[in-house]
Amino acid sequence: MINIDSISPAPNILPTSSHLTRADRWDHFLARVGWKRGEHRVEPGLYALGSPTPDSPVFVTANYTLSFDALRSVLGGVDGYILVLDTQGINVWCAAGKGTFGTDEIVHRVFATGLKNVVRHRKLILPQLGAPGVAAHLVKKQTGFLVEYGPVRAADLPAYLKTHQATAEMRRVRFTLRDRLALIPVEVTQTLLWSALAVLAFYLLGGWFSALAALTVFIAGLVLFPILLPWLPTHDFSAKGFILGVLAALPFTVAAFLGNSSLAWWKQTLLGLQFLLIMPAAVAFLALNFTGSTTFTSRSGVRQEIFRYIPAMAWMGGIGIASTLALMFVR
Amino acid sequence: MFNAYLENTLAYDPALCNGCGMCVNVCPHAVFEMNGRKAVLARPTACMECGACQKNCVTNAIAVESGVGCASAMIRAALRGQKEAECSCG
Fold first, then answer.
1. SS3 A18
2. Bridge partners of B35?
3. I need a labelling partner for A135 at 20 to 30 A (CA). Which of A107, A294, A322, B59 fits?
4. Cβ neighbours, 10 Å, residue A206
5. Domains in chain A: how many in total?
6. How do residues A225-262 score in pLDDT, each as one tens digit?
7. pTM above 0.90?
C-alpha cells in the first residue's frame, strides 16, 4: 500500500522571528507612503517562529510584509508556525475581498507545504478579516484542518491565545484616529500628480490666489477630512465633504469679495461665489473617494452616495468653472 | 437625511440557522448576535457587505451581495463601462 504521506513533498520550513529589524521598519515606512505598492512581499510558504513542535499552533497570514510582520511581531515568546498564503502582496482583508486570501489558496498551501507532516493537530488560526474569502467548513472538508478565526487585530493575539475565545471587542473592526492618520501619506502620494497639475492649472487661470484655493482643496480633502471624519456632521461622506469644503472656501469667498470692491456688484459677487461653488464640490468628491479606505462603507451605501451627490458636485463644479472663465473674458 | 447607508443587501433567514455562531465570529461590525440557539440580526444597518458571514454559513441562511464599498473603484468601473467594480489599490 502506498502511504499518501510518503509521497507528499518534504516540508520546507523557512525560519523567521518576532524581531523587527531596521530594514523591516524601513520597508513599513515605504509601504505606508505608497512606494512600489504591491511589491512589499514575503515568500509564501511555511515559517517556523521560535522552536515549534508538532503540537505548536499554526497561524495563517498574507504575503504582504505589513501583515506578516504585524503577526510575527506580537508573537514574541510563542513557538509556532506561520503559513503565508500567496495574496500577491495584498493585506489580509483586501485579499480576502478579492478571494486570493481564500479557501482554494489555503487548501493549496496546506498541501504544498506538507503541513500535515509538520504538525500533529489539525487546526489553523486565521485572522478574522480573512473570513470574507474563506469558507471554514470547506477548508475542513478539503484538508481536515479546522479553521479558527482569531481576533481582527494581531495585537489581541496574545490575549486570545490564553483562552482561544475572542471577546466582542476583539471581533470589532475599528477606524481610530491613528488608523486614519496612517492612511494620509498614501492618500496624498497617490494623488500627488493630479493635485500638482490642478494647482498649476489654477495658477495659470487665476494666479497665486486660485492656486492657493486648489491647494486648500487637496489639504482639506486628503488630510483634514480623514482626521475629522467622525466629527463632521451628517453620515454621508459627500455631505461631510460639502460641509468641510464650505468651511475651506469661506475665507477665499470673503477675501475675493472684499478685495474686488472696485468692480461692479455682480462681478464682485461672482468672484466670491466661484470659490463657494468649486471648492465644496471638489472636497466632497475627494471625501467620497475616501470611502474605499475606510473599514465600514457598504457597496450599497456608496452606490447610493454616488447617485445622490455626484450630480450636485458636477453642477456646482461646472457652474463654478464656467463663471470663472466667463469672468476672465469680461474683466 | 444624508445617510445613504440605511439599506443594504443583507438577507437572513432564521429558519435555516443551525446556531453554529460562525456569523457572530466573522462579522467585524457585530451585525449578528446569538439569542439562545439562533443568530439574530442585531445591527443590520452596520453591515458593510463584506460577505464573511455568507461565506461561512454552512446552511446558507445568509445572503449578501458582497463587493467593495469604494467610490473610486465604482466610478472608475462606470467610466470604463465595466459592470463590476474591482478594487485596485494594491
1. coil
2. B38
3. A294
4. 19
5. 2
6. 999 999 999 999 999 999 999 999 999 999 999 998 88
7. yes
